[in-house]
Structure formats: structure tokens, C-alpha cells
Amino acid sequence: MRREKIKEMMIHAWNGYKNYSWGANEVRPIAKRVNNQAIFGGRDMPATIIDAADTLWIMGLTNEYKEARDYIETHFDMNKATGTISVFETTIRFLGGLLSLYALTKEDFYIDKAKSVAEALLPAFNTPSGIPMSNIDMKTKYAQNYNWANGG
Q1: How far apart are CA 32 and CA 27, in angstroms?
Q2: 45-94, pLDDT tens digit by residue?
Q3: What is the pTM of this model?
Q4: Domain ranges of the chain
Q5: Are 142 and 123 in contact (CB under 8 A)?
Q6: Per-residue pLDDT tens for 7-21?
Q7: Within 10 Å of residue 8's Cβ, how many Cβ atoms?
Q8: Is the CB of residue 66 less than 8 Å from the CB of residue 20?
Q9: 98 touches 108 (CB < 8 A)
Q10: Cα–Cα distance, 82 to 14 (Å, whole number)
Q11: Residue 122: alpha-carbon gap to chain centroid
């Protein structure tokens, strides 16, 4: 019973995202509109689709997974990222999501997409310690930390 309720809640959340923000990075569920977080690379970077797709697969939500899969294969492109992205968020939501999807499905296009994300993140790791900077400007490839971080 709990499992079915959780699946029901996932379908509800997925449909809310689809109805109000499909293809954008997030939805504002109460406002029922796009939540455009610059840290995900701008409006056209589908953070929610990639982040949710492995959960859809694991839950056996085949139709919903296929919608996500097809969107990722056709539309996800790191070259669409604009502004300054968060290295942490990009790593956990895009890179982690794509690698999880590959581990579950063995579909090669997920590896190709993950490689493009990893390559976009590389400038952040060009530091004396190897510990990455927190942000990368996608146009200039300049990496820096948040201003509020101790010592920049």
C-alpha cells in the first residue's frame, strides 16, 4: 500500500512538472510555473527530467520514464547552458543522473551526455589543490568560488 502511494505521489509530481515546466529546469508547484535557476545553466537545461528519470525507471513507471528518456536523448545538450553554473548541482543532478541512467539501462547515449557534462566541468578542477571551484561561467569557461565563501 505504501509503495503504491509513493508511486502515486511521484506521478503527481511528474505530471505537475510536465504540465507547467516541461523542458525547463524546475517547476514552482504552488505558482504552477517555471522556476528558472541559473545554477542549472538557464531555463533550457532540464535538471528535473534528468534528476527524476532514474527514479521513474526504478519505480517501473515505464511511460513516464520513456518521456524523460526521449527528451534527454533528443534535447539535452550542455552547449545550451548559459550563465554561471554550480559545479556541485551540475555534478549531482546532471552527471550523477546520467551515470545512474546508464548503470540502469546500459544505453550508450547516456555515457555520451555524461561525458559532455564532465568536460564542461573540467575548468573548475584546474586549481592547485584539485578541489574544484564552485561555479563556472559557461561562455568564458572561467571558474570561481561564490563571493560568500571564505577567501573567495
Answers
A1: 7
A2: 999 999 999 999 999 999 999 999 999 999 999 999 998 999 999 999 99
A3: 0.91
A4: 1-144
A5: yes
A6: 999 999 999 999 999
A7: 10
A8: no
A9: no
A10: 25
A11: 17
